[in-house]
Each structure stands twice: as C-alpha cells, then as structure tokens.
Amino acid sequence: MATETERKFLLKDNSWNTGITGTEYKQGYLVSSPERTARIRIAGNKGYITIKGPGAEGSLTRPEYEYEIPLADAEELFNNLCEPEKIEKTRYKIPFENHVWEVDVFHGTNEGLIMAEVELADEHEEVIIPPWIGDEVSDDPRYFNSKLAKNPFTTWE
Fold it and tell me: pTM of whole model > 0.70?
C-alpha cells in the first residue's frame, strides 16, 4: 500500500526565502471527508490526481495514491467536477540536511498563511528542524489543505 508520512509546521520568519523560484499550485477536491479525499492538482504545467485515506488515531501516516494525468484532463476536472472551494499556493522546495522541505505560500482565501512540510520514510525518522521553522501543526486538522479549502485561513478568528 502506498503511504505518506508528513509533518507540518508554521514558519517563524522569512529567512527560508533566499530568492528561490516556486511553482504555482491549484488544487480542488472531488471528494473531501474525514474518511477520504480525492484531489485534482495542477502544479505548473502538470496535472495529478491524488486519493488519500484516513490515518490511524494519532498517526502521521495515511494511505496516499498519486498519479500524473494529462494537464488537459486535470484542468477539465478542476474546472467542472471539483467542489467550488479551491486552494491556490506557491510551493518552494528547500533542501535542508537530509530532507527536502516544501514551503507553501497560500493565496486567495488563505492569503497570509505560510506552512512548511517534510515527508518522512516513517513516523520515527529523525529530522533536523531548520532555524526558520516555528510551531508544529501536524495534528491540527485546520491546516489540512482539504479543510483550508472549506474553512479558509482568512476566516479564522
């Protein structure tokens, strides 16, 4: 079974941004529930479909299946079949120690939110935290992209 293990963090400053170039991402959800999500993502000029299942209680690992699909198909699905709420962000990939950190700068209804995530081989893998990383939000469901689509950061109190 394909799985994903990731940790998510807020950033404490902008020292990560050393003039690197990011990739524009748009994503929408065909299905978004606690039990499963099916996402369409357009990353630059590539399209993807991703299906995720739930993780076990307190686990950072969950089933994930992601496949590249033709860009035209991704655009058609995104525009015609996805739920109305969408995610817009720019993703920056930053190597640090033995991992690649992905920093997402959100736009649109999530403007002002900047998060970093790191994928791990398993939940017990040691990771060296970069100095620009702040609080961990891995266990806070408000920061899941599927939740941000329906309850945007700009609406939080």
Answer: yes
Residue in 25, 29, 92, 143 annotated catalytic: 29
DSSP the chain: --EEEEEEEEES-STT-SS---EEEEEEEEEE-SS-EEEEEEETTEEEEEEE-PPPTT-SEEEEEEEEE-HHHHHHHHHHTS-S-EEEEEEEEEEETTEEEEEEEE-GGGTT-EEEEEE-SSTT---PPPTTEEEE-TT-GGGSHHHHHHS-GGG--
Amino acid, res. 62:
R
Would you state the pLDDT for residue 3? Answer: 85
What gap in Å lies between CA 2 and CA 129, rounded to an integer?
26
The residues near 13 (Cβ < 8 Å, ≥ 6 apart) are: 132
**29 has catalytic annotation:** yes
